[in-house]
Amino acid sequence: MNKKASELQMGASIARLRKKQGLTQAQLAEMLCVSNKTVSKWERGAGYPEITQLYSLSRILGTTVDTLIMSERQGITVAGSLVADRIKLISSYPEMNMLSTIYGISNAVGGSVPNVGIDLARIDRKLKVSAIGRVGNDADGRYLIDELRKNGIDVGGILTSTTAGTSFTDVMTVHDTGERTFFHYRGANAEFVPEDVDIPTLNCKMLHAAYILMMDALDAEDPEYGTVMARFLKDVQAVGILTSIDVVSDSSGRFAEKVIPALRYTDNAFMNEIEACGISGLPPRDENGRLLVENIRQTMEQIMAEGVGARVIVHCPEAGFCLNKNGEFTVVPSLKLPKGYIKGTVGAGDAFCAGCLYGIYEGFDDKAILEFASGAACCNLAAVDSVSGMKDKDAIFEMIQNAERVEI
Fold first, then answer.
1. Nearest CA-CA partner of 249 in 210, 220, 286
2. Cβ(135)–Cβ(188) under 8 Å?
3. Could you count the other beta carbons within 10 Å of the beta carbon of residue 146?
4. How far is CA 377 from CA 271, 289, 351, in A?
5. What is the DSSP track for 179-194?
6. Are the C-beta atoms of 79 and 113 separated by less than 8 Å?
7. Range in 45-49, 63-67, 155-159, 315-319 the model is least confident about
8. How many CB atoms are located within 10 Å of the residue 326 CB?
9. I need a labelling partner for 132 at 20 to 30 A (CA). Which of 78, 177, 264, 336 fits?
């Protein structure tokens, strides 16, 4: 670790532990007989405490000198959308002014934070996973927080809105065909802003932010950085945390406008083939629906050229693709699944994303990242909801080793 990264890391630890003790910067400064500016400088990562100050500092903060010096950020934080899915099984989708019967109603988690966060927690129970976002003061919000807690996820970063309800989606599923129609309420997600996050005290190695084009305040224009999301990612990178993004498909023509500014401050960018090609304008498939791999590669090169720091990863039903900062292009075909295996596709993209994040966190090479992500996505496909199909890492590795691959 270089000197600057070490300073940022210690500064984040001081800020986090100070707040845990309920102290202001002024109070800590007084206890150490230093100025407010000195404490502020430490927490910004602009310098270290003097060696003679470390014992008193660690004692006040309730830790040890070794822990304070050697503390290293751990885990993955997922920030962004939290959605309660209300799934209604209906007899048919009615024409205007006509009636349809609802056979059953069920609830499920949705949005990037619950989907990716719970998937990560189920892949590796030892992994520290934290959630950041907004919910409303309502039953849906409490349901989402409870589900996250049940999976061992830190929910301390989830705020409760006083002006909007929890975001939800009414999913209308036709009983006989499985066709679905969605009615989405943006709710508290639309209010989530960078000021909701105390960035200097984040205790994670990686922060994943999603979904661009579904978070109104983060998608708003920023005069200096292009979008508020881009500014947020820049500030997260500035404290030494790796950033990643995911997006949603959009037909409004705003895709490139809202996504491109964030790429400059993104270490790892995840998209499907349709979303990625929304930036390049190249078709991902020919008139027969066959994948155009060269177009996808050119698209990824264009995305990387916008400033992505480490890698661009694109996924589609047939394969996963990775282009890294060295220009190395990797293709891994998807696993071949037996007939009848797929029970649903809700959250498959988030499961793939969670697999990628875990592989990156653990230091896998690009091929292994794509293989693991493919296995995670296949776990998801075995369940009708977005998270209950996920298995642990050992089961995913076993699935990868035993499965055949599709042809592309």
1. 210
2. yes
3. 11
4. 14, 22, 5
5. -EEEEEE-GGGGG--G
6. yes
7. 63-67
8. 8
9. 264
Which band of pLDDT confidence, cut at 50, 70 and 90, is reported for residue 120?
Answer: very high
Phi and psi at residue 330, to the nearest 5°: -120, 135
| pLDDT greater than 60 at residue 1 | no
Q: Are the beta carbons of 307 and 287 closer than 8 angstroms?
A: no
The answer to whether residues 79 and 193 touch, using CB atoms and an 8 Å cutoff, is: no
Q: How many CA atoms lie within 13 A of 11 on its CB side?
A: 24
Cis peptide preceding 211, ω within 30 of 0: yes
226-277 pLDDT, tens digit each: 999 999 999 999 888 999 999 988 767 788 899 999 999 999 999 999 999 9
CB 330 within 8 A of CB 368: no
Question: CA 148, 156, 240, 312: dihedral to nearest 10 degrees?
Answer: 30
Amino acid (1-letter code) at residue 184: H
Element (H, E) at 88: strand 83-90
The residue with tokens 């934080």 is 77
Please report which residue ranges of 44-185 form alpha helices under DSSP H: 51-60, 65-70, 112-123, 139-150
What separation in angstroms does the CA of 359 have from each of 19, 22, 365? 32, 36, 8
Q: Return the closest-CA partner of residue 105 out of 91, 88, 90.
A: 88
- Which residue do the tokens 């890294």 mark? 324
Under 8 Å between Cβ of 345 and 388: no
SS3 content of the chain, % helix, strand, coil (to 5): 40, 25, 35
Distance, in Å, from the CA atom of 237 to the CA atom of 205, rounded to the nearest integer, reads 10
Q: Tokens for 13?
A: 């630890």
Low-confidence winner among 46-50, 58-62, 82-86, 207-211 (lowest mean pLDDT)? 46-50
CB 370 within 8 A of CB 330: yes
Q: Are 166 and 135 in contact (CB under 8 A)?
A: yes
Ramachandran category for residue 262: left, alpha or beta (phi over 0 → left; psi -120 to 50 → alpha) = alpha
Task: Report how far residue 82's alpha carbon sits from residue 104's, in angstroms, rounded to the nearest whole number.
Answer: 23
